Amino acid sequence: MSLNRGRFNSVEKKLPPGVNLVHNEEHDVDLAHFTRFWSKASGSLGASEPSPGVLKMALEWPGGVKTVSVPDGMSMEVLGAFAGELGFAESPYAHIH
User: Fold this and answer.
1) pLDDT of residue 53
2) Which of 9, 14, 26, 81 is deepest in the core (most CB within 10 A)?
3) Beta bridge partners of 32
4) What residues make up the domain containing 81?
5) Count of domains for the chain
């Protein structure tokens, strides 16, 4: 999100090594494309860049959208609890609400 529409990195568009800038013409948004993964969660999800259409919706959302980073372990724990609640998997975290 920071690469677009007046946000903090929308002018310089500085990205770390292993991340390339990609422009999606259909939705007119800039995306960060990961060429490799360092995290267990990112690698297992397999998404090397955000969905351009979803990013555009977030940028246009009334009132704005905040992005956050969550540690891998927490993401995986919550996903396990969610899957357990829906009956997709036996999860040791199913009791978490």
Assistant:
1) 97
2) 81
3) 21
4) 67-97
5) 2
Same-domain status, 23 and 9: yes
pLDDT at 79: 83
Residue 49 near residue 33 (C-beta atoms within 8 A): yes
Q: What's the gap between Cα 19 and its chain centre?
A: 14
Mean pLDDT calculated for residue range 63-67 = 89
Q: What distance in Å separates the CA atoms of residue 68 and residue 75, rounded to the nearest whole number?
A: 12
Look at the pTM and tell me if it is higher than 0.70.
no
DSSP string of 32-76? EEESS--SHHHHHH--SS--HHHHHHHHHSTT--------HHHHH
Cβ 49 vs Cβ 15: under 8 Å: no
